[in-house]
Specification:
Layout lengths: L6 E2 L9 E4 L5 E3 L3 H7 L19 E2 L6 E4 L3 E2 L1 H5 L2 H8 L6 H4 L2 E7 L3 H16 L4 E7 L2 E3 L15 H8 L1 H11 L6 E3 L1 H27 L7 H4 L5 H22 L3 H28 L6 H21 L4 H15 L24 H24 L7 E7 L5 H14 L2 E7 L11 E4 L4 E5 L4 H22 L10 E6 L2 H9 L1 H8 L4 E3 L8 E5 L2 E8 L1
Helix pairs in contact: 6-7, 7-8, 7-11, 8-11, 8-12, 10-11, 10-12, 10-14, 11-12, 11-15, 12-13, 14-15, 16-17
Bound molecules: zinc ion.
Zinc ion binds next to loops.
Length: 539
């Protein structure tokens, strides 16, 4: 750095410890109160070494005997913090720990403190200890407005942190600042984008709530967790392996300072891996009425992964993670396996015996195929709740068994009635089927929706609407409706309801479902696949 002025014309601050002779210009720089006493004309030290007391101290010039006065100003504050490597330990009476802590692992400040702090620390440390005081420096970018302009009061584009946190929450703001750009780059701060973080935390909140609701319903606890983990299904292994990879990546990203990549990885895990995929696939398992090992193994997996996720999330979203740790993890965990706070937890590790990479690859492939099927569905206008008739996949001999174990993943995620696995394409009739080529694997999709399946689709949609109506009226889950009346202009929907009348009644807890010849009073109009349908519920 070029030379720069280290004094400031200020009142507060560390006074320059320099006295100059008013006659011969001789200068002394003192380094202790003892030295002040020795040089002071009165032989006394000030009661406080700051201004104004220090200014009253006059020295006698050792060279010519005239009065010496202190240089009137103070040192730049970054000179004070520029000796933090030594001064901060003295300040808290921990000086004896200097050798243990020095040089320090990590320091950070914004880019405008390059000379002010990073450099001052460096040169004072070289002078005092002949060593560099820090191992890693994170030099942060600035927060600008959403157009990349500097925030300033006169421009009126300032976002005040406390006000913003009050409105949008501290965790969403923190996640946003972490994920938006690399810590060393400037951020174009767009308040609207913070809402996306809130949305993702809502997804996490709902996922934990989902787990808690069903665990409680089935009186699940970690007492049986070891046993439950022996009955894992393919998607559980996939989920645990995804967690394992996510933790490894986050560890790696944090170590390299790529906090934005770490945060994005974490958010993606919450949205895609946990919510979109895993919870979708296990829903039918937790809906089982009877006591079943595959239900309990889903709870064990959920508990294990969610607890690990909450711990990993702690530094990124400290408030919600602490809440979930107290309300969810501690609710089920054994007493000796939890700590007072999530913030004194360590990064979780996954037991080796739960890591099955082969199965993870297989389930990942099935998800990839399923995504292709969802794309085909949207291309042909076939909604996800309409079950497709059949998918055939051709894999190699070795993996055939694995795929068969995991096939439910695809049946549920892509909503396919039947999935057949073959180890060779020989003798298989694929005419009329749509091919999906993943290079290492081929799939064939039958997109004909036969009348039965179509009707099932209509009926599922109707059930969903009725459940919405129940919800709007705040009916308890076990409340039995007296009657559901349905009127529709569509012949197909009419047929579907007639055929699945009992199913609708059972799913929506109604004594009877009737098809009526005209629009019932108090009915609500719905578009079921673009056909007007009217539904009325009677309590
Ligand atoms: Zn003098």
């Amino acid at each position: 750095a070029r030379d720069w002025c280290i004094s400031r014309e200020r009142y507060w601050g560390t006074p320059l410890p320099i006295w100059t002779c008013s006659f011969c210009g001789y200068r002394v720089a003192v380094e202790s109160i003892e030295e002040i006493k020795k040089l002071s004309k009165t032989g006394e030290a000030p009661k406080d070494v700051h201004r104004p007391w220090i200014d009253k101290i006059v020295f006698r010039c050792p060279r010519c005997g005239n009065d010496m006065y202190r240089e009137p100003y103070v040192v730049d504050v970054w000179m004070d913090s520029g000796v933090a490597h030594t001064a901060s330990l003295v300040q808290i009476n921990e000086e004896h720990r200097f050798n243990e802590l020095f040089p320090y692992d990590w320091i950070t400040e914004a880019v405008d403190q390059t000379r002010g702090w990073f450099y001052t620390l460096l040169f004072t440390s070289i002078i005092m200890h002949n060593a560099v005081p820090y191992k890693t420096v994170l030099c942060q970018g600035h927060v600008l407005d959403k157009y990349g302009k500097k925030m300033s009061k006169s421009r009126g584009n300032v976002v005040w942190a406390l006000e913003f946190m009050e409105r949008s929450g501290a965790d969403p703001l923190r996640l946003y600042l972490l994920s938006k750009s690399a810590p060393w780059d400037s951020i174009n701060f767009d308040p609207d984008e913070v809402k996306d973080m809130k949305r993702i935390l809502d997804i996490l909140w709902n996922s934990v709530n989902f787990a808690k609701t069903y665990m409680d319903l089935d009186k699940w606890s970690t007492v049986s967790i070891e046993d439950d983990l022996k009955h894992l299904k393919a998607e559980d292994y996939w989920f645990i392996y995804e967690l394992y990879m996510m933790i490894n990546d986050i560890d790696k990203y944090i170590t390299s300072g790529d906090l934005h990549l770490a945060t994005r990885r974490l958010l993606n895990f919450i949205v895609d891996v946990l919510s979109h995929k895993y919870i979708t696939v296990i829903r039918p398992r937790v809906w089982l009425e009877e006591e079943a090992p595959q239900k309990r193994s889903a709870y064990a997996t959920l508990f294990m992964v969610l607890t690990a996720l909450i711990k990993v999330l702690a530094p990124f979203a400290p408030y919600i993670s602490e809440y979930l740790y107290q309300a969810f993890t501690k609710r089920y965990a054994k007493k000796d396996e939890v700590k007072e706070s999530v913030h004194i937890e360590v990064l979780p590790t996954i037991p080796e015996n739960l890591l099955n990479k082969k199965l993870w690859e297989c389930v990942s492939t099935l998800f990839r195929l399923s995504e292709e099927i969802l794309a085909i569905r949207s291309k042909y206008g076939i909604k996800r709740r309409w079950p497709l008739k059949r998918v055939m996949i051709i894999v190699n001999d070795v993996d055939k068994n694995l795929y068969e174990m995991a096939i439910d993943v695809m049946k549920i995620y892509a909503n396919v009635k039947e999935v057949l696995v073959y180890s060779s394409a020989e003798g298989i009739d694929t005419s009329g089927l749509i091919e999906i080529d993943l290079k290492y694997l081929k799939g064939y999709v039958d997109i004909t929706v036969d009348e039965d399946l179509l009707h099932e689709g209509f009926v599922r949609d109707i059930v969903r609407r009725i459940q919405m109506l129940r919800k709007e009226r705040n009916l308890p889950v076990d409340y039995i409706l007296n009657r559901i009346s349905i009127y529709t202009e569509s012949e197909a929907i009419h047929k579907a309801v007639a055929k699945f009348r009992d199913y609708i009644a059972r799913e929506t807890r109604a004594k009877e479902v009737v098809l009526v010849a005209s629009r019932p009073s108090n009915s609500i109009e719905f578009d079921i696949e673009d056909q007007k349908t009217y539904i009325a519920i009677e309590l």
